[in-house]
Amino acid sequence: MPTNFVRSSCSLRPDWCLRCVIVRPADSPPPATDAAYLARLAQITEPFGVTHTGVAPAEVLSRARTAIDDRLRRGLTDGMQFTFRNPSRSTNPRRAVPDAQSVFVAARPYLLDDAPRPKGVQARVARYAWVDHYAPLRAALRAVARRLRADGFRAVAFVDDNSIVDREVAQLAGIGWFGKNANLLLPGAGSWFVLGCVVTTAALPIHQQPVEDGCGACRRCLDVCPTRAIIEPGVIDATRCLAWVLQKPGTIPVALRELVGDRIYGCDDCQEVCPPTIRFGPSNRAPAQDAPKAWLSVLELLTCSDAELVAQWSPWYLADRDPRWIRRNALVVLGNIGDSSGEVQDVLREYLVHDDPILREHAEWAAQRLCMQRLGVDEVPA
């Protein structure tokens, strides 16, 4: 007598069911985090222009914490926040990712071909800000983090973020050494690099030996700094560093205004004279970019609307997103490199009677620098 077999199934489709002969799968073990696995992670970053990677231990960054405490105690931060805001967090990767075991670090070059200076009164932008080099680096490290998470680890990417001292983990990862200008110098590559990292619970192979110091007795960066802001090897006085002076809110000290020169954002002087950076930088360039923003028209910055100014500044740090600090910088540059053209005089006339006392003060300084004390302005608001 034939037997009728009826196959039944669970409508809820569970992970396991004895009636449906579905066996609970065993948890897949995470892959071995050996050198081969690390090489695959590094390969993920290559299409994004990353050229150097390494791994640091996810331990408290003791040297960085001591240095931050020292700078704060000596009053060298000048109100700068960033990783100084919360040292107990920025120097402890496990505050970002509990139970983290390692930090995967990546460096991407940002050196581009020199951009010719346009005609007119033009202000100079530091090289790292010509284009957004952090965006492709961020994409690279997020891709690494996704791979780590897919393999069963926790992982979080940090790029241009105050959650961790990126130069410190990069040094611990064997990517470079600290130059006397406090930048990270990469052997055979120089210092034109942006840095980022992924903090992860994966126990990746840790770099064991630090990169040897390559500066020796050289002190070019200390000697060339226009404001002598590098007060000792590796120690920067932010009150004098033009990169910070041009970012912080408030009045630019009179003693520093002439030294600002034509800079509107950032300062590259200490890198431009660094022998390893001069020698190796040109062979470690960033992928070509369209329309790098290397120069800005000073008169356009002083005559465009606030909304246009903030939009133009969107990739860069701007205190409180307040356009007055851009105009302040532009007035100082105008005083340093402006001419006696009618257009320059018209702009200065407008700012000499500006409602903002800070902008008015910097306009008065610029007019005096250009020997235009008498521009037909009879009354200046108090």
Question: In whole angstroms, how far apart are the ends?
Answer: 112 Å
Oligomer: single chain
Question: What is the residue-mean pLDDT, rounded to a whole number?
Answer: 88
| Binned strand content | 5-15%
Helical fraction equals: 25-40%
Brief digest:
35% of the residues lie in helices and 12% in strands. The protein has 16 helices and 11 strands. Strand 5 and strand 6 (184-185) form a beta hairpin.
Overall description:
With 382 residues, this protein is of the alpha+beta class. It has 2 domains: 30-208 and 215-225, 3-Layer(aba) Sandwich (NADH Oxidase), CATH 3.40.109; 227-266 and 294-382, no CATH class. 35% of the residues lie in helices and 12% in strands. It has 16 helices and 11 strands. It has helices spanning 35-45, 62-73, 87-90, 93-96, 134-150, 166-172, 220-224, 242-245, 254-260, 269-272, 275-280, 298-303, 306-312, 324-337, 342-352, 357-369; strands at residues 52-57, 102-109, 122-125, 155-159, 177-178, 184-185, 193-200, 230-232, 235-236, 263-265, 295-297. The strands form 4 sheets. It has a 4-stranded antiparallel beta sheet, sandwiched between helices. A 3-stranded mixed beta sheet has the order 10-3-11. Helix 1 (35-45) packs antiparallel against helix 5, helix 14 (324-337) runs parallel beside helix 16 (357-369) and helix 15 runs antiparallel to helix 16 (357-369).
